Amino acid sequence: MASNPNTYKNQPDERGHFGDYGGRYVAETLMPLVLDLEREYRAAQADPAFHAEFDDLLEHYVGRPSPLYFAERLTEALGGAQVWFKRDELNHTGAHKINNCIGQILLAMRMGKTRIIAETGAGQHGVATATVCARFGLPCVIYMGAEDVRRQSPNVFRMKLLGAEVVPVTSGRGTLKDAMNEGLRDWVANVHDTFYIIGTAAGPHPYPELVRDFQSVIGKEARAQMQDRIGRLPDLLVAAIGGGSNALGLFHPFLDDPDVKMLGVEAAGHGLDGDEHAASLLGGFPGVLHGNKTYLLQDEDGQITEGHSISAGLDYPGIGPEHAWLKDTGRVEYTAITDEEALEAFQLLCRTEGIIPALEPSHAIAAVAKRAKEMPKDSVILANLCGRGDKDIFTVAERLGVEM
Amino acid sequence: MTRLSNAFSKPHPALVCFITAGDGDTAANLDALVEGGADVIELGMPFTDPMADGPAIQNANLRSLGAGTTTADVLRIARKFRERHPNVPLVLMGYANPMIRHGPEWFASAAKEAGVDGVICVDIPPEEDDALGPDLRAAGIAPIRLATPTTDAKRLPQVLEGSDGFLYYVSVAGITGKQQAAQTSIEDAVAKLKAATDLPIAVGFGVRTPEQAGAIAKVADGVVVGSALVELVGEHGSDAPEKLRKLTASLAKAVHSAAKGPRKEDMA
Question: Is residue B243 within 8 Å of residue B192, measured between CB atoms?
Answer without folding.
Answer: no
